[in-house]
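User: I'm preparing a small set of examples for a lab meeting where we compare how different chains pack in three dimensions. I only have the primary sequence for this one, and I'd like the structure in token form so I can line it up with the others. Please keep the answer compact; I'll paste it straight into my notes.
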Amino acid sequence: MRVIPLKDIQRVASSPVVLAAVRDALIRHAAVGVISPMPGALLFDQPPGDCHIKYGRFKGGDYYVIKVASGFYDNPKRGLPTNNGLMIVFSAQTGEPLALLHDQGWLTNARTAAAGALAVEAGRSSRLDCLGIIGTGEQAELQALWATGHNKIERVAIWGRDGAKADLLATKLCAQGLSASTVPQAEYLFGCAQVIITCTPSAEPVLPMSDIPLGTLIVAMGADNHGKQELATGLIPQADCLICDDRAQSLDHGEFQTAMREGLIDPARTVLLGDCLAKCVQARRSDKDIIIIDLTGLPAQDIGAASTVYDALTRRTADHLTA
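Assistant: Understood. Below is the structure token output for the 323-residue chain.
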């Protein structure tokens, strides 16, 4: 089995490559073109963290993929990255392990950032000059960079529970060419941003109850376990359109779980992001529509990203040998 280090993965996994792989994966998932059991989750209290195991294959595909991704939230205090992990690519014909992608969680972060950028594409209004970010960690930075780059957004406004970390993120984004600033309260984002992305591991709402301005898009991506919640429950039924990457996951342990339990939404109202990207469903019918998108993370994204990387590196090796 080939072990592929992070530097080789990054060499072939540019943002356009990952975006294309994730777009295809989301569309395949919506079209029931993916075989993937419900993901597994291992939760930790001391120290706080979680480990997610996702696995599956594309119907008719050459590979199946198993991904293990961890997040330990006290790691930065130890000088360690929050996220880590790996992906293993197997032959779908023989079961032979072909490659271990030692991506250290990087590919998971990249495919998550790509999904956020594509969600903004699917749900944005025609007027979009400022992106709101709730969160201050690695994924918050990636969401800001990928969503603005893919959707040509000029400004970023940030709110975080730790003001100093929010200021630091704004400084980092400015150093990378964005116009970034912070706001003192999360609800202030409603006054300046047409799109708000929440990317925290919070177990209680970080975006409080408020009247959502017409035309707003909210992309919530932090709730991926039972008990996690980033949006005040009363925000959900205000939406004209509810979109998710996977209906069962979102209603069971994603951002829509609480509203579902309280009977505030009709599951039949939810539509799939993959169908929106494939133009099978029109997400936004008016610039006045309020749209909320819940991203829980799909095995399809990992299958697509890992398969794309493996194929690209295999072609490079073959080209080198025949040169």
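A couple of notes for your slides: Residues 8-107+300-316 form a domain with the ornithine cyclodeaminase, domain 1 fold (CATH 3.30.1780.10). The longest helix spans residues 299-322.

User: Perfect, thanks.
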